[in-house]
Specification:
The structure is a homodimer of 103-residue chains.
Chain A (H helix, E strand, L loop, with lengths): L1 E9 L4 H15 L5 E9 L5 E8 L2 H7 L3 H11 L2 E14 L8
Antiparallel strand pairs in A: 1-3, 1-4, 2-3
């Protein structure tokens, strides 16, 4: 399993474009066979801060995602939306245990 | 829905105690009627960094959780485990949309 959470900080004038592109990407991404979870969150107190929580079956599934047309289309919008550099964390799932994660 | 992610930074000598207490708390917490998700993660690259991803049906469910015996037992261990102050974010779910979240 490969778990990645990324944080993005978006230019005010790009909020809607980023949000639409991210939702469209999420709707396609969740259909990929190797994706267990693909959640999109917006910070309740800082609306320019978004976080994507991505759970892949393995690194192969992650690599597959990075080459899909929907990811590449999203990336074009995202790259011009970032207000500053984002950051991310890779996690290990302790609870539920990895074997208990289902789509 | 109330979504909260907290980040904890644990003293090296308290890692196992914190982990055990957190797993025990998670196993009890997920049984609460108002809890939609209660995930426990450990940073794959910084093992002293843990993150809890908590999704409650509403703020009432969050308040209920904070008064349970299992939360209070966890808190006793957690308070002596923290190496430095943690931090947290409150999120709004964009994808899946709130109505699509199930336990």
């Amino acid at each position: 399993m490969y778990i990645f959470q990324v944080h993005h900080y978006i230019k005010p004038e790009m909020l809607e474009a980023y949000k639409n592109a991210t939702l469209e990407n999420a709707r396609q991404t969740i259909l990929e066979p190797g994706i267990l979870r693909f959640d999109v969150f917006q910070d309740a107190k800082a609306p320019a801060h978004f976080s994507l929580f991505e759970v892949y079956r393995d690194l192969v599934a992650r690599e597959f995602h990075l080459q899909t047309a929907h990811f590449l289309a999203w990336k074009e919008v995202a790259l011009v939306s970032f207000d500053r550099k984002g950051h991310g964390d890779e996690f290990i799932a302790l609870f539920p245990a990895e074997l208990d994660w289902k789509k």
